[in-house]
Sequence to fold (124 residues):
Amino acid sequence: MNTQLALLALFFATSLGHAHAAGDARRGADTFAEECGDCHSLTPGKNKKGPTLNGINGRKSGTIGDFAGYSDAIKQAGITWTPEQIDTYIAHPRKVIPAGKMKYDGLADASARADVVAYLMSAR
Fold:
């Protein structure tokens, strides 16, 4: 029985290492303002050059009805935005959606991305 519990504990401990890293939403707000805020808002219904990112978790790419600036590539990507998918996308947007319109090279710092994702997840 103790061996099974130890194996189970080991499994969960190693699995957690692969889960999305928890970020700090307060730091993410600052990074969002610097890296994303010129083009995106977290205010519901407030689109800028890019769509509002409020409520992005679980939303399909290219589906905000009152935002007309989507590329065909993002509308057809079929991405469901999860924390992990957002992290992948903001690391290398042009690798994820090569024909997309977003003019952003990506955020290389994994910790800063985790903070931005935490900030995005805090806006519901």
The radius of gyration is 17 Å.
